[in-house]
Design goal:
By secondary structure, this protein is an alpha/beta fold. It has eight helices and six strands; from the N terminus they run αβαββαβαβαααβα.
């Protein structure tokens, strides 16, 4: 009897979707210090309330991020900024609105605010106009202004602020981008670059938030603590950094509160990590004004 042929070698295991060690350090679950820092925070420029302007494509999660920040600081579920739960190619936010966040003491607010705007869309005559965002950066847009995709705010309009104060101006520009989104529309990307260039000329610091990281990566869906081990999300952030020019250390992956009914410590950790840097950057900028 001849020798039996050797069985074929087993195929190599598929490469792991996770890196062996995280590429960015973060203290999971240790949120007390960050919360206390924000509760005690006062701008170096006493005249200023730090204004954070969120912009990005339609459906990226701008309103949901404001709600998520409010949830973290309130320690409960809130609905400060109305957001849509349905996917749409049209913006749910239509007006320029300032969102304040209450402190524990009745009548007191945190010394920073968020502005939500209509989403960016490809092509002309759709979504928020870049001219309106640039006017907002300079403090010329009053609350309640309804964005018009066809024409921008004129200086004779009721909602045009001809003499903005330090607090009317934007102190931090934050781009919100969906980790699930396919390659960015070239027209939207061009608009984002135009806005970024205008902010840079004004000296306004800029950050980016990558949302929906749980549904974009199976490993992060299992546990958010895999976020800085995920090869997919690291590449997504790197591609976004290359496209828009925002450095990697100014891009933060987060999961907005969406299906939760209770506060989650890991969700809070990622949001607080981004929020602290936003406020610090805005504080540094207002001190120069």
């Amino acid at each position: 009897m001849g020798n039996k042929p050797s069985p074929p070698p087993s195929p190599p295991p598929p490469p792991s979707p996770l890196l062996g060690t995280p590429w960015r350090d973060i203290s999971w679950g240790n949120n007390r210090d960050s919360l206390q820092y924000l509760k005690n925070f006062q701008p170096q420029n006493e005249e200023a309330t730090i204004r954070v302007l969120l912009h990005g494509p339609v459906g990226a999660g701008k309103s949901s991020f404001i709600n998520s920040v409010n949830n973290v600081l309130q320690g409960r579920m809130t609905t400060e900024a109305l957001a849509s739960a349905t996917t749409s190619d049209q913006s749910f936010t239509l007006k320029y609105q300032t969102h304040k966040i209450k402190k524990e003491v009745r009548g007191n607010f945190y010394p920073f605010v968020f502005n939500d705007i209509m989403g960016l869309e490809g092509g002309n005559g759709r979504g928020v106009r870049t001219e309106d965002i640039i006017l907002a950066l300079k403090g010329h847009v009053k609350d309640g202004y309804k964005f018009n995709p066809v024409s921008s705010l004129s200086d004779d309009d009721y909602h045009y602020n001809s003499s903005p104060s330090i607090s009317d101006r934007v102190h931090v520009l934050v781009c919100i981008y969906d980790a699930n989104a396919p390659q960015m529309n070239s027209s939207v990307l061009e608009k984002m670059r135009e806005i970024r260039e205008a902010a840079s000329e004004l000296g306004i610091p800029q950050l980016a938030i990558l949302t929906h990281i749980d549904s974009a990566c199976g490993e992060t869906e299992k546990t958010l603590r895999n976020v800085y081990k995920s090869k997919h999300l690291k590449k997504k952030m790197g591609d976004f950094s290359s496209s828009l020019g925002i450095p990697m250390n100014c891009i933060f992956p987060v999961k907005n509160y969406s299906d939760e009914t209770q506060i989650n410590s890991d969700v809070d950790t990622l949001i607080l990590s981004a929020l602290r840097l936003m406020i610090d950057f805005g504080d540094d900028y207002t001190e120069k004004l």
